[in-house]
Design brief:
Shape: globular
Largest sheet: 11 strands, antiparallel
Strand content: over 45%
Number of strands: 11
Number of helices: 2
Distance between the termini: 25 Å
Length: about 290
């Protein structure tokens, strides 16, 4: 998102269609994803003490391979903690020396990451791309522990992190819509021909809607208050994700995400001086594809 993984058989006898969406990973296991992340952002700003600036328009298009190695696995199923090593590699095949582009972390049972090492060394585009990869890869960890079945719908809610307005949340609606043939990876060994589809996949659609709770007139996050600032304004956004999860290997095969957000915020000192008004419109498209 701009703002800012697999299936097993029956979980209970008599309910053969209920599926646990967490892969069984093993120490030493390696795999590679191709990730592309395209963004478009327009920022308009004005203040009492400066002439309004022309809108700032920024486009981004970043593509990388994410080479993954499983270092250690603790626990099983939905309770497992997985220590992983990833390295971002250029899609043109150019090698990176040593630990350049390496991020190590632990994937927790609820899909969150812990103990990030090396992430802060990445540039801003690579950080955004890596977060896209891990969010899509770990999606199955966030599903109900009892498993899900075709046609089932469920909801979750989580805070929007790092926003200039407080009490923003993502309301997420999930639906396991069907089973169908997994999509091809998009490239073969030579990079010139599509690879074969990897059997059948579970298809999950996720729709996230940004909601703002509380007053628009006083929406100051705690970290802004610490710097004697206050904020007001409104935000809205929507994100749609189409996810394919292999029924055979339990791995994320492919995810496509489209997202759009609008932020309209006034930032001022606590005494209402030096107000600045910002309007930001942002959109993005991301693709995460298992290639080997």
């Amino acid at each position: 998102m701009v703002f800012v993984a697999g299936i097993v058989s029956s979980a209970a006898a008599g309910d053969s269609q209920r599926l646990i969406c967490v892969p069984t990973l093993q120490e030493g296991q390696k795999f590679v994803y191709r990730v592309r992340y395209k963004t478009h952002k327009v920022t308009r700003s004005e203040s009492r003490i400066a002439t309004p600036l022309a809108p700032e328009e920024v486009d981004g298009d970043t593509g990388r391979y994410v080479a993954v190695e499983v270092k250690k696995v603790q626990g099983v199923g939905s309770s497992q903690r997985v220590m992983m090593r990833t390295q971002l590699l250029p899609t043109d095949g150019t090698p990176r020396a040593g630990d350049d582009g390496v991020v190590e972390f632990t994937l927790l049972p609820d899909g969150r990451t812990d103990g990030l090492q090396g992430f802060n060394v990445l540039d801003a585009d690579e950080q955004a791309l890596w977060r896209q990869w891990v969010a899509q890869f770990a999606l199955g960890w966030t599903f109900p522990a009892k498993g899900v079945k075709p046609g089932e719908k469920w909801k979750t809610e989580e805070p929007v992190v790092g926003a200039a307005l407080a009490k923003l949340v993502w309301e997420k609606d999930y639906e396991y819509v069907r089973q169908e043939a997994c999509p091809p990876s998009g490239e073969g060994e030579s990079g010139s021909a599509p690879a074969q589809a990897a059997g059948q996949c579970a298809v999950v659609v996720t729709t996230s809607t940004m909601k703002q709770h509380g007053s628009h007139d006083d929406a100051t996050p705690d970290d802004y208050k610490l710097h004697l600032l206050k904020t007001s304004g409104a935000a809205q956004g929507k994100t749609d994700v189409l996810t394919f999860i292999s029924l055979k290997t339990r791995m994320l095969e492919r995810a496509n995400e489209d997202s759009a957000q609008i932020l309209d915020v006034v930032v001022a000192k606590a005494d209402d001086s030096n107000k600045a008004h910002f309007n930001v419109e942002a959109s993005s498209h991301a693709e995460v594809i298992l290639v080997q």
